[in-house]
Design goal:
single chain; mainly alpha
């Protein structure tokens, strides 16, 4: 036995018809939605005006954003990369920009002031 029985054919046809009708009912007419629009609150009113094309706020915000992106991507990040390469790879001394002061031990003379570093006090008892 091949194919659908007459009952199965009728059921498939009815389901197909119902699906088509349901899909047609989902389309909105030009009069829908029927619900009246509520008046906008303060914040919503601000954003509705702010997001209008060619509004002054939108233009200035866009200019500030593009200026910030340009500054970050074309100036600050490349300057940081160059600084890093010069400081840690190209400089003659390793870590050449930061130089450590020489260590001072008891009895040494401080070059800038000429003072002598006092000796450590002699303590007797525990080591």
């Amino acid at each position: 036995m091949s194919g659908y029985t007459p009952d199965e054919k009728l059921r498939v046809e009815q389901i197909t018809t119902l699906r088509r009708k349901w899909l047609k009912d989902q389309e909105l007419s030009p009069r829908e939605p029927v619900i009246q629009a509520k008046p906008l609150g303060g914040v919503a009113k601000f954003w509705a005006g702010f997001l209008e094309p060619k509004s002054l706020w939108r233009l200035y915000t866009y200019k500030a954003y593009t200026g910030g992106v340009f500054t970050l991507t074309r100036l600050l990040i490349p300057a940081w990369i160059v600084h890093y390469c010069v400081k840690y790879h190209i400089a003659q001394r390793p870590y050449g920009i930061v130089e450590l002061k020489p260590k001072l031990f008891p009895g040494d003379t401080i070059l800038e002031t000429g003072e002598r570093v006092p000796d450590l006090p002699e303590t007797h008892g525990h080591h």
